[in-house]
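Is iron/sulfur cluster placement plausible here? Inputs below.
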Amino acid sequence: MASTVYFVGLRAENEHNTVISRLKRCAQRLLEGRLSSGDLVAVKLHFGERGNHGFIRPIFVRAIVEVIRDMGGKPFLTDTNTLYTGFRHNAVDHLETALFHGFGYPSVPAPVVIADGLRGKDHEWVEVALKHFSRVSIASAILEADFLFVLTHVKGHIEAGLGGALKNVGMGCASRIGKQMQHGGTFLPAPNEEKCIGCERCIVHCPPKALFLDAHGKAKVNPELCIGCAECLLYCPTGAIDASWSAKSEILQERMVEYAFGVLKGKREKAVFVNFLLDISPDCDCAPWHDASLVPDIGILGSTDIVAIDQASGDLVQRAEGLAHSKLGRPLLPGEDKFLAVHPTALWQRQIDYAAELGLGNKEYVLEEM
Ligand code: SF4
Ligand code: SF4
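Reply from A.M.:
I modeled the complex. Tokens:
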């Protein structure tokens, strides 16, 4: 049987039927019969890297938090620290960034808890016994929470193709060790000497300091240190680092899904998902910039099925018209793949297929308008 995915459209013609009031009704529908009074609810989101403005607006998060509170839950906002050296690399910088982006009590009445602690080391192992991993390392506060409410800004992603709920849960709830496990060996950069201008941006942002400039001022990589995180690719301004690792992208996606499996193990009836199809940029909110949307804003989806909601998100983006004044560079037709157009080696459907194979949800869905 197909799973239900609720759709909150963006039309609103009077104050009695706003997008926020329908988002709240959607959240209530998702929580009914699942949330217990007193549950500690981890509201998993991404606070956005400094310089990025595509993250979910605090006003939407506030609406969700109010519903959780009204229904007896105890919400806290949460995310994990990053591998790369940005402004969310440790809990102090991360909390300051969250406040900087409006996630403080005056806007959103819930505390922020960085799920993997001060330096990303607070984690627990979960047995999964799957193809890539026998066990996975998950941030403690995510595992210890009674309930997981996942808020995802849907966008493109340089390695996964689609950044949806599966990625938010799989990569976003992993500890630092877990993130390294997912990236390990999936990508080894080979900077092109002709294109490299020696700007050192890749070196500054490489988490394990695997890059250096040679005597000629060209970037080189130490394969012994590289963890394959692809941050250098994201930051290189000249395209000197090649992205041709199509088979490796699928491995990363499968690993990510195995992590999502570990996060949701024991929480299948205590997890719900809301995807925001707004400001659908080519790159993720970890980038310290936000590029123009690939397609017009679509709406907000809600479901108890992580596979169905990501499949619906991918389908709706593909059905939309591609915007020429974006990274696409031309007006793609409905039906053309917008994510593949900007990340041609990242076959994003693989993460959804694999999640369905593992029984995490159903690719068949029906959209129900709120
Ligand atoms: S892919 Fe390797 S070289 Fe590039 S940033 Fe990550 S660890 Fe550093
Ligand atoms: S970011 Fe690109 S151009 Fe700059 S040093 Fe690294 S490889 Fe060279």
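Short version: DSSP finds twelve helices and 14 strands in the chain.
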